[in-house]
């Protein structure tokens, strides 16, 4: 699940997200993704190969 906000995430929220498998995008990430055309995998800092379906 992806959580997007225009505000920064506080440390407890980041910790909770990490424990819960949530992906977070804050204002900076949102601008990079929506306005600058940065790929979502790059904004999230994740490996696209690790998140591909195995079909």
From TrEMBL:
It comes from the Bacteria. This is Uncharacterized protein. It comes from Actinomadura rubrobrunea. The lineage of its organism: Bacteria, Bacillati, Actinomycetota, Actinomycetes, Streptosporangiales.
């Amino acid at each position: 699940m992806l959580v997007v906000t225009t505000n920064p995430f506080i440390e407890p929220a980041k910790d909770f997200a990490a424990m819960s498998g949530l992906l977070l995008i804050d204002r900076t990430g949102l601008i990079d993704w929506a306005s600058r055309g940065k790929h979502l995998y790059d904004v999230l800092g994740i490996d696209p190969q690790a998140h591909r379906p195995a079909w």
